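> call design_seq(struct)
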């Protein structure tokens, strides 16, 4: 059994658009990924989320995505590796500045949404992301999909990697996530979520949508902060984690 980091995507409100119960969720997770303004978030939300995380002693990560507010960063887009590198540096650099003025430490970087999924097993995109994180600071941890090519590229570069598994997403038998375009992509019930997470924490397995048990060796477990059950899931996962350890 492993002592799993529990992460959550936060800071995704902006202007008049409000989502999530961020401050409450901070009581039940060990790390967070803060939206950096492209897919969601803005300068004030970023700063406030950094302050709250430091106050509650939660590890801070940057959550850069595609420039896609309409699609919440979940729309596949076409960018060159050089453009991906630049958008990573731009977004993570902005969050780094807020962390610095609050005298905190940036712990990790986790790409968001379509950028995360499209780059997981694409060598050129993954390499651009890895190089950007390394150039920003070689001590930053990269959060990426468990078993992905990006994880291998990052380790070869010398970065520390947290391979990630999802508490509220279903998997194919090849270890990839079921697309959000599919009706069965999300785990909606508390009962199914707890069964799924318990399998990850105890035997390092998930049941795929093809009804196959697949091995998932991961260091961090994600809760999506914009999900309708995010706070309830976070409470239950924190309690389960404590119970198992």
């Amino acid at each position: 059994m492993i002592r799993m980091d529990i992460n959550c995507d936060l800071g995704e409100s902006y202007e008049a658009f409000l989502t999530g119960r961020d401050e409450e969720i901070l009581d039940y997770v060990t790390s967070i990924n803060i939206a950096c303004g492209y897919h969601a978030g803005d300068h004030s939300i970023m700063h406030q989320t950094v302050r709250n995380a430091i106050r509650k002693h939660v590890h801070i990560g940057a959550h850069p995505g595609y420039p896609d507010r309409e699609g919440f960063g979940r729309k596949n887009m076409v960018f060159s590796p050089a453009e991906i590198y630049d958008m990573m540096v731009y977004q993570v650099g902005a969050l780094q500045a807020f962390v610095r003025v609050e005298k905190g430490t940036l712990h990790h970087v986790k790409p968001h949404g379509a950028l995360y999924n499209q780059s997981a097993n694409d060598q050129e995109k993954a390499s651009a992301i890895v190089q950007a994180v390394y150039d920003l600071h070689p001590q930053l941890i990269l959060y990426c999909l468990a078993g992905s090519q990006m994880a291998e590229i990052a380790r070869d570069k010398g970065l520390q990697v947290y391979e990630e598994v999802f508490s509220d997403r279903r998997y194919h038998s090849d270890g990839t996530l079921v697309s959000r375009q599919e009706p069965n992509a999300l785990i909606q019930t508390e009962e199914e979520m707890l069964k799924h997470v318990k399998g990850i924490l105890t035997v390092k397995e998930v049941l795929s949508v093809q009804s196959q048990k697949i091995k998932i060796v991961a260091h961090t477990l994600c809760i999506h902060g914009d999900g309708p059950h995010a706070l309830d899931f976070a409470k239950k996962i924190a309690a389960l984690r404590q119970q198992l350890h």
